[in-house]
Every structure is written in C-alpha cells, then in structure tokens.
Amino acid sequence: MPSKLSYIYDPFFVKKNIRKDSIVHLTSQTVAYMLNFFKPRKTVVTCYDLIPYVYLHEEASLLRRFMIKSWVKGLKKADRILAISEYTKRDVIKRLGYPKEKIFVAYPAVDHSRYKKLKKDKEIAKKYNISSDSFNIIYVGNEEPRMNVELIIQSIAELKKQNKKIRFIKVGTPNSEGRRQVLLKLIRNLNLKNEIVFTDHVDEKDIPQLYNLVDVLVYPLAYAGFGLPPLEAMACGCPVITSNTSSLPEVVGNAAIIIKLTNSKELTNALLNLIENQDIRKELSKKGINQSKKFTWEKCAEQTLKCYESLNKNEK
C-alpha cells in the first residue's frame, strides 16, 4: 500500500511539499502538463480520452495547440496511466506509443442508489416538456460534430414522414461555438420545431427521472472515452441505441442496439423497431439494468489500487 497519495494541481506546490515516497496522481490527462515542470518518483495520470488531441485542427489557435501538445508530452512521462476503458488504453498505445504494460483500466460507474427504476414523476415530465402521447427520445451531451446530433434530427424527420409522433429532448449545452445555430437551422429546414426540446443544463438530480420518463437514449458518437450516459440510462432501465465506435460497445455489451454511423437510415430503422415493438423495449430494459451492474465504484477502486501497487512492486 502506498504511504500517501496527493491530489494537487499546482506543480510548484507539489514540488515543494510532496513526500519522496508519495504517489502523485494527476486525475485528468489535461493536467499532465505538470510533469513537464517536475518529475516525482512515482506518478499516475488518469486518461479519459485523447479527444482534444485527435480532433486538433490546423486552424486551432497557437495557444490551444501548445496546451494540448503540452499535456500530451506530460502524459508520456507518467510512470503509469489509468485509462477509463480498453479503447482509451489502445488509443494511448497507438497514438502516443506508450508502453501497454504501464496502462491499467479502471472503468467508471454510476451511483446505483440514484440511477435506477423510479416511479414516473409527472412534474418532471411537465418541466421538460415530455409528452405521454409521443415516443420520447433523449440525448445527453454537447453538440460537437463528433456527437452526431444531426443524425438524430434527420432520423426524427424521416419518422415524422411516416406519421410517427416523436419528441426529442436534447440535454446539455452546445459546448462548441456556432453548433446550436447549425442545429436550429436544420430543425427549421426540416420543420421539426414542435418535435424538439433543448433543455441546456439540467440539474443532476433530475437526470435519473428523465431516463425513467423517456423511451430511449440515442447516443451516436463517433468517439467516446467511455460513454457515461448509456450506462446511466441502462441503470434506469431505459433502452439505448448507440454507435459501434470507440469505447461504446464496451459499455453496453449486448444490452443495447448498436448501429453504424454511415447515414441516418440505420438509426431510423432502429428507432422504428423500438416504436413498434414494446417487447424489444422491455427486453433491452432488463438487459440494460443487468449490464449496468457490471460497473461499480468498488471495482474501479480495486483497479486503481492495483495501479498504485504496481509502482511499489518495482522498488522491491
């Protein structure tokens, strides 16, 4: 067991106050730049994903490019990396050339005392404009291009042409300049103003109720380090449709409908299947709850401890 752990983000404070036998755990790859200023004897960095690095555009500002390259450089200097999925582990190995034997995987989890099957709250339904007369779709996240929110909107338009009554609840802020305007223009062009609700920020205590009120979570991301919303939804018994990319198949296992992202047709067909088949929705709900139980904070802690212990073994 390590004698002491330090969770501090000021490199100069750490350098001055850290004990020599301590493990310094930087709890996000974005603060790994600190390892460029000093190098403690034993370091761990939690890596959620390499999204900023993978999606770093040439037109990005010099400051942003410097910052991202700085934390990538620091991440390579860590004695151990704690990845939140096998996909993130593979990505770090592939893109950064980091030794695979020094990477441990510790999956995140949800609080199962909060994220679970709940009695439907009519007040929450009213608050977020969820209609009992419609098939309710939810997406939780930002609106960056890799999230493929347009794909959901296009599928809703196709379902509307088939006289399906749909309500799409989009939870979360845009987190990307101009993206909301792009989506609003698409919605206007497709005449979907009455079918789509933007909630922006939602109080975390309302999220479990939302999953219990809607019919499906759609999460068609091109890249995700883990994918917490699908896990949250499954824990609440909410069916999930997600993509076959990055870490998402790891999270959902065989408890969700997994689609390709080539076009909106596959998503439309998956939604149509759920709309018309209540038995499939019930089956996915049961499977999702069971799948979600595989992810616990106890298991996460155990893997984190193994990562720490591997550093101490090298000294014996």
SSE arrangement:
Elements lengths: L4 E2 L4 H7 L5 E4 L15 E6 L3 H4 L7 H15 L3 E4 L2 H11 L6 E3 L16 H6 L7 E6 L8 H13 L4 E6 L7 H11 L6 E5 L6 H7 L2 E4 L8 H8 L4 E4 L4 H5 L4 E3 L4 H13 L1 H15 L4 H17 L3
Parallel strand pairs: 1-2, 2-3, 3-4, 4-5, 6-7, 6-9, 7-8, 9-10, 10-11
Helix pairs in contact: 6-11, 9-12
Task: Tell me briefly what this model is.
It is built from 13 helices and 11 strands.
Question: Would you mind describing this structure in some detail?
Answer:
Helices cover 42% and strands 15% of the residues. With 316 residues, the protein is of the alpha/beta class. The strands form two sheets. The protein has a six-stranded parallel beta sheet, with helices on both faces. Helix 7 links the parallel strand 7 (166-171) and strand 8 (196-200). The radius of gyration is 21 Å and the shape is globular. The two termini are 13 Å apart. The model has no long low-confidence stretch (mean pLDDT 91).
